[in-house]
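[09:14] KT: can someone run the structure on this one? pasting the chain below
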Amino acid sequence: MDLAIQGKWALVCAASKGLGKGCAQALVREGVHVVITARGEEALEKTAAELRQLNPAVQVRTVAGDIGQAEARAAALAACPHIDILVNNAGGPPPGDFRDWDRDTWLAALDLNMLTPIELMKKVIGPMAERGFGRIINITSMSVKAPIDILGLSNGARSGLTGFVAGLSRSAEFASRNVTINNMLPGMFDTDRLQKTLMEWASKAGQPLEQVAQARRRASPAHRFGTAEEFGSVCAFLCSAHASYINGQNILLDGGAYPGTF
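[09:31] RB: done, C-alpha cells below
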C-alpha cells in the first residue's frame, strides 16, 4: 500500500533506538524526510547513517539534545523546513515506590512526558492546519489503560497527556483541516526501557531476570515481546493519507495482553 506521504517532513523524538527508531525507519521507507533527536550524539549519528542507507532519496537530519529542554526543542523545530508529522517520544521516568518520590521527581516526570509533547504540539499544529495536513503521534504506554504498580510516575504523567489530547484532537479547528492526533500505547516491546523494568521486577521479586522475562512473555497471548519494526509500521500507517478519519484514539499494541473488553 502506498501511504501517500512521500516527500513529507517528520520530526521524530528520541529516535536513536527503540520505538522512536522503529518509527523513523518506517517513515523513511515511505519516502518521508526526517529530523531525529536523541540525547546521545554518537548513537543518534549511527542511526542517521542507517536511515540514509535505508532510503538514499530522503533527507535525514539530526539534533542532539534533551527534548525536554527548550533549547533542544527549538533546535529540532528549526531543523525542519516545515513539519507535517510529529512523533512525540521520550524516555519514561524510572520505576520505583511512590513513597520515595519528592515533588521535584514528579515535576520532572510531568515536564518530560506531558508538558514537552504539549509544547511541541503547540508549535506545529497551527501550520499543519494551514497546509491542510498534519499527523501527530504521541508514544505513551499501555500503563495509560492498564496501570503498572511500579510505574506510578509514568502512569500519572502519560495519563495527563492522554486527557489533554482527548480534548485537543476533537477541536474542529484542527480535525476539519486534516490534522489528526493519536496516541500509541506500547505494551511489552523488546527495548532498553523494558529491560530496565524487568530488572526492577526481578529485584523486587527476588527472582532471576530471565525467569521474570519468560513469565512476562507468557503473559501475552502472543508469547513474545513486540519489535520496534512492527511498532513503526503502525505508526507509519497512522501518519498516512489513509488514516485521516482516525483521530483522538489510543491505539494499544500489546499482543492481546490487555484483558478488558473496552
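[09:33] KT: thanks! The radius of gyration is 18 Å.
[09:34] RB: yep, looked fine to me
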